[in-house]
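Hi V.,

You were right to ask for the full record rather than a summary. Here it is.
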Amino acid sequence: MSDYLTHDHPAPTEEKPLQHLSIQVRHSEGGYSFYDGKGRKRGLVVGFQMVDIEVLPSGWTSRSFMLLGGSEHAMSFHVSTLARRNPKTAAKLVDFVNTNLDRLIHFGMLKDWPMVDAVLTEFAAHDRAKIAA
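Predicted structure:
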C-alpha cells in the first residue's frame, strides 16, 4: 500500500491524551486480508484509525495503534476500483477528502461509519457521472 494523504486530527480523551484520528487515502493492491481472510479489491481506500502520536525528546515522532481493535479503533472504505495505480484519480480523491475533511472528521470521531460511507459515496457517484458524460 502507498499513501497519497495522511491527516492526523487531535482527539484526546482523559485516558489517552495523545490520541488522534488518522485519515489516510491510499492505494491497496487487493488480495486476501490476513486478519479475516476476506478478499479485498484493488484500488483506492480511505482509512480511519485511532493512533497515539507523541513527539519524543530526540525529535522523533512515535505513532502507536491497536491491532485487531475492530471498528472501535479503525475502519477502511474501498472508494474506487482500479486495475492499476492512477495518480489522476488519486489526486481527485485527495481533493475530495480535503474538501470534505470537516464532515469526515466529525463522523469519524463519532465512529458513525454509515455517515462516513455516505460522504465517500458522494465521490464515487460524482466520479461515475463524469465517466458517463
